[in-house]
Amino acid sequence: MVSAHVPDLDSLSLLLEIALAGSLGGAGAAHGISQPAVSARVRTMEALVGVPLVERTARGSTLTPAGVLVAGWARDVLAAAEVLDAGIASLRAVSRQQLRVGASMTVAEHLLPRWLVRLAAERPETAVSLEAMNSSQVERAVLAGRVDLGFVEGPTVGEGLTDEVVARDRLVVVVAPGHPWTRRRRVDAAELAATRLVQREPTSGTRAALESALAAYAPLAAPVLELSTSSAVSAAAAAGAGPAVLSRLAVADDVARGRLVEVATSGVDLTRLLRAVWVSGRRPGPPARDLLRIATTAPVRPRP
């Protein structure tokens, strides 16, 4: 605990200026304050220390023997403060120039590349690391402090997290060419819920969003396959393993090339919100705030 008798750093610096300039006016000019302000600061220091520190004469001002001692100690204190200030500045610079991002597979593969290109143009000094994982893993990484900002695609977020909607996405039903559903105008919600699908793993945002949309028909049919990436699910569906429900972002290329066929649905809203998440009570740093702004203003479209 700092003693109540210790002057503040600015006052100690002023004491050194008096010793160097030899006058209160000269010290004030070097310090950017008036001579009366210097006199007031000296009186305050002397009251704190309890002994005279400056001797005023017709020829100027000099330090008393006690003032010389205090000034010597002050040099060490001010030098240590400069080291501390430089260290803090270094930490702040590092935090401004590094951004760790965790994102669900859909966001990481189809949206973040464009966002990060814009961020790099605006902040070329910022080094960004990106880790792709499912939405539950993203939330855990944010809470554990392993990433600064997360992007998830589930219908809700866990406790301890603040979220902001950055985009809207839509899940679509896809099947292999030749599947019986390709000859129908649409599949209703009840049939979709009763059909064994090729699914993502239970902790993925895509799986959670589908289960939430079909909650009125729970329990859903058991998956015919559970796979850990959207590309694996779409490949399995294209090979004829069964229908799948994936982000339109993830299947746009396969649908355009005829490897998958999109099937219309009725009685179910497959729109979902994509969210950014960070630890509640902690304001995102400047790079994270810039990425949030980019994400909320960029158009959402399939990657070409």
UniProtKB/TrEMBL annotation:
PANTHER family: HTH-TYPE TRANSCRIPTIONAL REGULATOR, HTH-TYPE TRANSCRIPTIONAL REGULATOR CYSL. This is LysR family transcriptional regulator. Belongs to the LysR transcriptional regulatory family. The keyword Cell membrane does not apply. Gene3D superfamilies: 3.40.190.290, Winged helix-like DNA-binding domain superfamily/Winged helix DNA-binding domain. Residues 7-64 form the HTH lysR-type domain. InterPro entries: LysR_HTH_N (IPR000847), LysR_subst-bd (IPR005119), WH-like_DNA-bd_sf (IPR036388), WH_DNA-bd_sf (IPR036390). It comes from Microlunatus spumicola. The keyword Membrane does not apply. Keywords: DNA-binding, Transcription, Transcription regulation.
